[in-house]
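subagent[fold] <- orchestrator: predict structure for attached chain, return tokens only, no commentary.
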Amino acid sequence: MAANPYVPAGFDPKAPEWAVDPAKFPADKEEKWGYPPEKDGWILSHNSLRGELDDFQAALSATLARLNGTAPSEWEVAAIKKWYKAHADHMHSHHENEDALMVPYLRERVKIPQKVEKDHELLIAHMAKIEKIIAGLSTEDKSGVPALAQAWEAYTKDVKPHLLEEEGTSVPLMRAFFEQAEIGKKVGEILGNEKAPKEELGSFIYYTGEDTFRNEFMVQEGIPFFVWWVGGFESKFKYYRDFVAVLITALKEGKEQAPKEW
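subagent[fold] -> orchestrator:
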């Protein structure tokens, strides 16, 4: 992986200072993992968020150019609102997975930086501003989409470094102090959470790629092939592809695509 500029200088996930109890839980697990960090589910979930950030940025840029200082049409407002709700549900669920499941589990052995939660608070504040702008979008107000584009850019500039920092600190610490099978159980809990919004896993598969998800990720996590169908993976992927991602395409191309219901 490329050098991560958001990792503190001299950071060593195996250093004793990170261990809760170095004698009981030594940092000697990294070499036992069967795949590299870039294929880790934590990083792949971040890739799906990065994909959404970039796609919506491109959709807003195309929309701004098309509107050329005029107010958005009814279908553009509807598409933006529908897509953003999917993203917000995804982001909030992702944070819940980290704050309520993964990080408390990791802290049984390792001192995960407190900055993780603090960053989440900042991102939620960004989202509150964005949601206020989106709620006020109107076919009679030409200022709404430019304001949204500006707010989205500011949001993106804080989300991306946060994701990289987690990938450069929390993920290496996890892999140093926990075995693959131990984390695999938590991954299974996340994937099997029936209360999670379908947009979360749908986005994960969409940006990972259906073939890569089925033939690589499911295999590395020991997930039987038939779970693609019986576990709801296929339906969530198709929902995201056909009812969420299509809205980005519509906004980029300027072709009306009214939000549909699953």
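orchestrator: received. Logging for downstream: The mean pLDDT is 94. Residues 186 and 251 are 37 Å apart (CA to CA).
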